Request: fold
Amino acid sequence: MGAYVARRLFFALFVLWGAVSVIFLVLRLVPGDPAVVLLGPDANPDQIAALRARMGLDQPIIVQYGIYMRDVVQLDFGDSFRFHTDAMDHVLAHLPNSAQLAVTSVCLALLVGFPLGIIAALKANTVVDRVISVFSLATQSLPNFWVGIVLILVFARGLQVLPSYGQGSWQHLVLPSVTLALPFLAILVRLTRSGLLEVIHEGYVQTARAKGLRERAVIFPHALRNALIPVITVVGLQFGALLGGTVIVETVFAWPGVGRVLIESISHRDYGVVQAAILLIAAAFVVTNLVVDLLYGYLDPRVRLAG
Amino acid sequence: MTDLVSDPTTSADAGRSNRPPRWPLPNRFRPGRASTPPRSRPGAGRIRFASAVVAVYVLAAVFGPRLVQYDPVATSTTDRLLPPGSRLSDGSLAVFGTDDVGRDLLAQIMQGARISIAVGVATLVLAGLIGITIGVLPGYFGGWLDGALMRLADIQLTFPSILLAIFIAALLGPSVVNVVIVLAISNWVTFARVTRAQVLTTKGRDFVDATRTLGARTWHLLRRCILPACTAPILVVATVEIGSVILAEASLSFLGLGTPTSTPSWGITISNGRNYLSDAWWISTIPGIALAVLVVSFGILGDALRDRFDPKLKNL
Amino acid sequence: MTGPTPHTQAHERSAGAPLRAAGAPLLSVHDLRVEFGTRAGIIRAVDGVSFDVRPGETLAILGESGSGKSVTSQAIMGIVPKPAGRVTGGQIRYRGADLLSRPPGEVRKLRGTEISMVFQDPLSSLNPVFRIGYQIGEMFRRHRGYSRRDARDAAVELMERVGIPAARERVDDFPHQFSGGMRQRIMIAIALALDPALLIADEPTTALDVTVQAQIMRLLARLQREEGMSMILITHDLGVVADVADRVLMMYAGRVVETGDIREVYDHSAHPYTNGLMASIPDLDHPSDRLTPISGSPPNLLDLPSGCSFRPRCPHARQLCADDDPGLYHVGQRPVSHLAACHFAEEVTADVRERI
Reply:
């Protein structure tokens, strides 16, 4: 297990390093002076000259990269020219709000998605299954910004039972978290269903039946645990889509999280904050993927013991 | 093509397991092409239905703007925020109502279809060219370049693609061309992986070895043996991807990072409508429905094609 | 049941097994029919199969893939794959009670406790993500209500009994950490955990190395002797059968084509299919002899020939074989327990005698 954890940890760091490098690369590839881009439209020539010197823009690209990596390791993304505070601090201040939204959505999706998927598989090719499948196909492809707007129209404007935007009570959390959870939930349903149907004909399921176990004891430990292994990997990848979704959902519901900070900073061309926000979301994603990988190792002894 | 659909039991019924059931019948007892061909091939109904919907959108995108005039800069204060089914001041019928400056919503949606489909196709062509090249060449020749590119693909896959798109779009600024570039960059990986996997399996097949033994050049092998085998999976991937590309374009535009605010793309229209939710629900909802139906249709089409041609792509 | 079948009567009068003739059969299958729905049509995988298994005896069911032997065993266990497969007729009487007319919950309780099964491929039959101790112990926990610790101890004890070395250290290992032969021993341990009266072994050695096959067969024979179990051994390997089986049942295209005591059928085979199988075994006494394969290919169950299913491959086939489907009947001048489904059974046995 130790070797497996070490390998996953190393890969996570590798991906994070890749993300940082991509940001560096994109900033250099985009036309224009990175210092001018980072400082925003209102910067005066002295500030630009100072930043150019600090970033080492007159030096070879490899030196620039070194300086950049040094800053990243120290979580130094410069200051936000709008708020005149440290960019990373500004983003971190909004992290708890995003975390609250994301965690609520994931819990919601897991609590509803797994049971629905299991039901659909056990009732495969019946009316129940068809209804669940159509529901999940539709919700998977619905644009979540539009779903958010429709939910606002129905529950906030029409029925007037829930607040449409902002943050405060638990009611404020309902609409954004449902919006964010829906596509994730849909994927969970589909994967759980197909995963279960795939293993139901496996030999060990037949063995479990031959052992005289109750149907529940056949499905839950024996079939489900094997069915979940492939589901877990895709869930990890889909978590990225969910984090991307927070950007949109936070914008629709004016939820004061990292995603909204990102979009606002983009429209004000506050690129220090943009970099910090992007890296923070990427880091959150890498960390959750690491957790998923470890979970995968826990569920599948063949992976864990491979070395 | 035939070897992709060789065993009807593996591509059987929609969502059912792809594995043949575990009863002890050898292959020849399974229904095969030789004895009695199955009446309808799997997913035929779904394919027909979804293609029909997509065809309607394409027709609307191509001919719609000629039938219903749309002037992006026209404003008509008397026709502002009219509900669906209203008569405009010039006597024409606004089936879907009008927006905040009095422009006909139906005309706007058909323009939006034009943009969405154009962006979707252009992105797929670009992403496909990048992805297939990167998939075929290193996949076929192997070596360090192959390893490096696949690691790059791994990193990009473990990185939320919408985030990459947002970052690049934020730096490039809103424009249709930039959207295509951004989305192509964040979508090439799937093409590369699928192509590479297909190349690697095809490369080892006997008929390829046989052709090579007969003295065929590499270029001939690639063009006549390897690439044809990749066609079906690539088409399936393209269908599955086009829905998500169109969705990503709308999302970026909604956030103000996609097409410029002057273009009538669906994302922009929906975003505009947000300011009038209390007075004019239709401005945001109807383009959203148009978008959703198109994306769902591509989803159904992609699923059905995959079930039919290549069940092993299931987890993409 | 509507009275004993002709062939059970025949068997009761059999002189070949005087010790076992006293008791009633443990398992009595009568006119079993199983169908599979496929996209191309309905397949009759098992078509009117009848046989008995007596306490303590070993019945071998022989036949090639697709002959219906495995489906027969699945039907006895009540685990025919659904929804494709369906038992459409017949009776499976266990200790006199028809399993097919019992509620599924009641039949389930017999599985593992009274009737157990060992499958062909031990790797796919063991759950890859659970520890061996858990999978063996599950029998004690679910059927007998043992605690986790007691179940684990019982599992270790069983592992020792089936000859797994260092059982106590290996009880927490996973299936992929064992060799093929060891995995099959684990499967056998699971099957025998609750001392069943009947063990169905479905090609238990086919997936194993040749060197291990004999070990597993010896283990099965030893355990059977110790427990006094009955066993149904399903196989396509005539060599395996000769050493362990008391009686044999030959299946072809979902039907029984020949049955009788093992020596009787081996020495005086009365069906051309059995004959053909015998001719295709290498003979160690005359290794230079050429093997004679059965001509033609296995039958297409979707499109069986009229009359006798074996007709297209049979050297004895005549017009009668196409017109009339031969039932299973007593082979003239042979012991009454010897039945065959061939119009020319006597001719075939005569042939065999000539050959010898």
In short: Residues 1-22 of chain C have pLDDT under 50 and may be disordered.
